[in-house]
TrEMBL record, chains A, B:
PANTHER family: FLAVIN REDUCTASE-RELATED (PTHR15020), UPF0659 PROTEIN YMR090W (PTHR15020:SF50)
Residues of the NAD(P)-binding domain: 7-188
Any Pfam family: NAD_binding_10
CDD domains reported for this sequence: SDR_a5
Name recorded for this polypeptide: NAD-dependent dehydratase
InterPro entries on file: NAD(P)-bd_dom, NAD(P)-bd_dom_sf
Domain of life the protein comes from: Bacteria
SUPFAM superfamilies, per the entry: NAD(P)-binding Rossmann-fold domains (SSF51735)
Length: 212, 212
């Protein structure tokens, strides 16, 4: 499957390109400048230029699915939270609709279902993610919204827990496992029109997804 | 009509309380601290305590209409753009729905129909306003969305131009005139489910609204 990865240069994105390629997909990483080409190609992907703050419609041409794994990150201001996390995502969703690309996977976060319960300094980010998720849910795309808890850079374990709302949201999950889950759900129709949370656990990814 | 004014302490809000009171309405200004009571009472309004970043549902009790005229202003960061201009508005809309308050007037801005065309430094604000407006349009409330162009502190003239999309968006409009328009449209059913722009012009407010 030819799949556009938005945020390919991010911390999850790099694992994701590799994981998709290993699974036999054809990942295309959307990048903002050519310095990033080598890392994506080394991971087994192709690249296309596109900037979330501009018109990136051409990046979606010919793709069968879109995975939105971009984030403005903690080192930019809330203006980028609006422009990237919220509006970049909404533009990608609208563009997928426009181009008839039915499969859309959103990397969201635990807490975006109820931003008011989050810490004050996280609320703007959680609201931005919530609005993007809501925009996606209101489409007729075959969407999946994945909400991992706290991310770590530990090596992946392949072991997770998953639920619409995890009772215990403590713990972490390696970014490598998040990438593996994104890859696993791409063609898993059981996850269409679903929103769920993941964290480290003791089930294989396919077992955890099967129990949803 | 008992009407809650959110943003009563703002630059449009103070004119609005006065204008509503003069028209025989019963304006209630939502304020964050008791220092603001005197200004509202001097303008002819009552007050209720409420903070857009917290639960302010009690501020709406018993009101027949809500006018959202709050703005985080140019001196705060984009985190407040999300929390006040976007999410504060969305909370007010949801709360009006919840409490069965059918009439909702939103003070929006020229440019929020197409933020991409705005200057880069205004885009986050314009997107936040757009999302709030869209949220309102998706309800079954009797809404009106008013989008003035560039605001001035000149004295009101009572003369405006109005259209769904003004061909010529140059010029300004005094905040006092914006307040007069908000008051005029409150009970004007011709403006229900409508979104329109206003600027200085040469028609009386009622004539301009009648031509919509």
């Amino acid at each position: 499957m030819k799949v556009l990865v938005i945020g390919a240069n991010g911390q999850v994105g790099t694992h994701l390109i590799k994981s998709l390629a290993e699974r036999g997909h054809e990942p295309v990483g959307m990048i903002r400048n050519t310095d990033q080409v080598k890392a994506i190609e080394d991971a087994g992907g192709k690249t296309v230029l596109g900037d979330l703050e501009k018109d990136f419609s051409q990046a979606l041409y010919g793709c069968e699915a879109v995975i939105f794994a971009a984030g403005s990150g903690p080192h930019t201001g809330a203006d980028k939270t609006i422009m990237i996390d919220q509006e970049g995502a909404i533009k990608a969703i609208d563009e997928a609709k426009q181009q008839g690309i039915k499969r859309f996977v959103m990397l969201s976060t635990v807490g975006s279902d109820d931003p008011e319960k989050g810490p004050d300094n996280m609320k703007p980010y959680l609201y931005a993610k919530k609005r993007a998720d809501e925009h996606l849910k209101a489409t007729n795309l075959n969407y999946t919204i994945l909400r991992p808890g706290s991310l770590s850079n530990d090596p992946g374990t392949g072991q997770i827990r998953a639920a619409e709302s995890l009772e215990d949201k403590s713990g972490q999950i390696p970014r490598e496992d998040v990438a593996a889950v994104l890859t696993e759900i791409l063609e898993n129709e059981n996850t269409y029109h679903r929103t769920f949370e993941i964290l480290n656990g003791d089930l294989s990814i396919s077992d955890a997804l099967g129990q949803l």
